[in-house]
Design brief:
With 231 residues, the chain is mainly α. The protein has one domain. The chain is 76% helix and 0% strand. The chain is built from eleven helices and no strands. α3 packs parallel to α6 and α7 packs antiparallel against α9. The chain is globular and about 50 Å long. It starts with a helix and ends in a 7-residue tail after the last helix. Keywords: Membrane, Transmembrane, Transmembrane helix.
């Protein structure tokens, strides 16, 4: 085969590839990266989402009470806490699935949880200031330690998500401790409520069951992925 014939064949092959790409029958890896990047949520977008949810909860509380007072604000703070709790459960479920978590809690999920819980903390401080209440020291210290863990987590975020060996148990302790603190907020009211009125605590039982189910799922996922830890 002559050199000129080889060049003609080569040009035909190049023309065919360009036509296939134009018709969309060939998937370009670069295009895949762009699509994947488009599906991810960044931290700035999540901030707007979190603020939007808090505004919705504020309106929901207002429609429930019809006025703004200390009691309605207390309920709003509780709703905000439930939102923070659900955000944490999503973080637990998605810890071993980084690609899925990027679509829900952004590419920095631990920082996203800091945003949600930080907003909730500001509402808690506002309620304590307006009501003049001071929490008991026995409840304050475990909560303060939990907030310390939460606000320090962004510094370990990269190693948590990459499952680096040195941070394996740090991440597990963080997750379990925050889970315990959340669940402990439900138990006192359940235990203190008289037996004849416990049927009214459907909401608390629902969130408690959701937390227990999430913990079981998390333990199973940790066990399945125990060999994927990077050194």
């Amino acid at each position: 085969m002559s050199f000129i014939s080889q060049r003609r064949i080569f040009k035909k092959m190049e023309w065919g590839k360009s036509e296939i790409k134009k018709n969309g029958n060939q998937f370009d890896p670069c295009e895949k990266k762009e699509i994947d990047r488009g599906k991810r949520m960044n931290l700035f977008q999540f901030l707007f989402l979190a603020i939007g949810v808090e505004i919705f909860l504020a309106h929901l509380t207002y429609f429930q009470f019809g006025e703004v007072n200390l009691e309605s604000f207390k309920v709003f703070v509780r709703y905000s806490g439930r939102f923070s709790y659900l955000t944490f459960l999503i973080l637990m479920i998605s810890e071993n699935h980084p690609k899925k978590i990027e679509k829900i809690l952004s590419t920095k999920p631990y920082s996203a949880f800091v945003i949600v819980h930080g907003i909730h903390l500001s509402f808690v401080f506002a309620y304590l200031y307006l009501s003049g209440k001071i929490p008991a020291i026995g409840r304050l210290l475990p909560g303060m330690l939990a907030y310390l863990f939460i606000f320090l987590s962004p510094w370990f975020e990269k190693s948590f998500l990459q499952k680096l060996h040195p941070s394996r148990w740090t991440r597990r302790i963080y997750t379990l401790y925050i889970w315990i603190i959340f669940v402990m907020t439900f138990l006192p009211k359940i235990f203190k409520t008289p037996a004849e009125q416990k049927s009214l605590l459907f909401e608390l039982y629902f969130f408690l069951s959701l937390g227990l189910g999430t913990l079981l799922f998390w333990i199973v996922q940790e066990w399945k992925n125990r060999k994927e830890i990077s050194f």
